[in-house]
Amino acid sequence: MTLSVLHWDELDVAGRRAALARPALDSRADVAQAARDIIDEVRRNGDAAVRSLTRRFDGIALDELAVPSAEFAAARRELTLEQTEAISTAIESINRFHSAQIPTPPTLETFPGVRCEQTVRPIDRVGLYVPAGSAPLPSTVFMLAVPARIAGCPRRVLCTPPGKDGRAHAAVLVAAQLCGIEEVFKIGGAQAIAALAYGTESIPKVDKIFGPGNAWVTAAKQQVSNDPEGAACDLPAGPSEVMVVADDSARPQFVAADLLAQAEHDALAQALLVTSSTPLAQAVVAEVSAQMAALPRRDILERSIAGSRCIIVRDLASAIGIANDYAAEHLILQVREPRRWLPQIRNAGSIFLGEWSPEPMGDYCSGTNHVLPTYGYARAYSGLSVLDFVKRITVQELTRDGLRALGPTAVTLAQLEGLDAHANAVTLRLSLLS
Questions:
Q1: Are 198 and 43 in contact (CB under 8 A)?
Q2: Quick check: 346 and 382 in contact, CB under 8 A?
Q3: pLDDT value, residue 1
Q4: How many separate domains does the chain show?
Q5: Residues 169, 265, 330, 370: which is the catalytic one?
Q6: CA-based nearest residue to 184, from 71, 50, 49
Q7: Is 370 annotated in the active site?
Q8: Contact (Cβ atoms closer than 8 angstroms) between residue 377 and residue 327
Q9: Which domain holds residue 293?
Q10: Which one, of 136, 365, 337, 360, lies nearest residue 257 by Cα?
Q11: What is the pLDDT of residues 343-392, one digit of tens each?
Q12: CATH number, domain containing residue 288
């Protein structure tokens, strides 16, 4: 199985739509109902439900949901010095970039005697979800925990599924410790989202939940975020994806490697190449097959590559237009003068410029966040940042002169809308100033 090749100018409207179609997800109605059932069970039975669901879905019987200190210590011993230093280096890089995102709230007079401000407050309690799936994701720990710490969130709770041995993955625990996370629970799936949203005997209720997950996790996040008694959530997401835009200057082996790097996440991951060079397209197709044959996750790659494709276009301007229509989670520009095209990119989760900027650098340690909008959500959503962990609250203060000058405007507008009580709250004060 390898990339299919399509010629954009030979496709009709339906063909172009199909060329940019993402893999179909599981039945949304079935997944939503399953998530709803899990949420209801956790709300009714708390820890007992979480243990029962963990036995059912993970095959693990847990006495305690929280990770004990002895397990943290064992995790430290399990990792090599090189592995621990790599985690520390990544945390340092991510901390630098995210520290620069701390907002400077405005304060100004919008009218003489009318002062408006914006003040920033951290979210009190945040839940960080780190999936396991077919591979542990310690990198997701620091992508969530670092901005939460920078934002100043007082309580940061992490949930991650247990392995077959009943323990959380050692690298996830070490990353959590290095990020200052003290509360870690060994639960995953929709039951973890429900426990964080509503609380159980052991797991504290949080105000907002962050982190990627499978279709059930996504469905659970959507449902609890629609419930006033639940918890807000970060951003909608689907399977991982990458689009590479390349011209004839690109190296086929680099392009193929970038496509495969994202395609190995899971069978629904999608990798697209859009290129103005037919020889490059042919070389990349051959290179994908050659590299895939030597990779351990070949079974997953064969399924994800089956849903991936190479699109040949007449020029780079057409490629950029397709990129904006697709709105990729990861967009790689392997072209001459990639920065020249940057202002024309409107829709993307994260952009990688040039042949020396492989997508895994953003996944792990360049400093940007890898929790990104997928499945086309990059048209309206941004990747995770410190701003997602804070609330921006507006403040206004009027002097007597300020109310005297601007108050009649508010009265007129209130009367225009037929809201007499609004007008009265202002005219009562104005009457005392005349």
A1: yes
A2: no
A3: 66
A4: 3
A5: 330
A6: 71
A7: no
A8: yes
A9: 4-23+238-367
A10: 360
A11: 999 999 999 999 999 999 999 999 999 999 999 999 999 999 999 999 99
A12: 3.40.50.1980
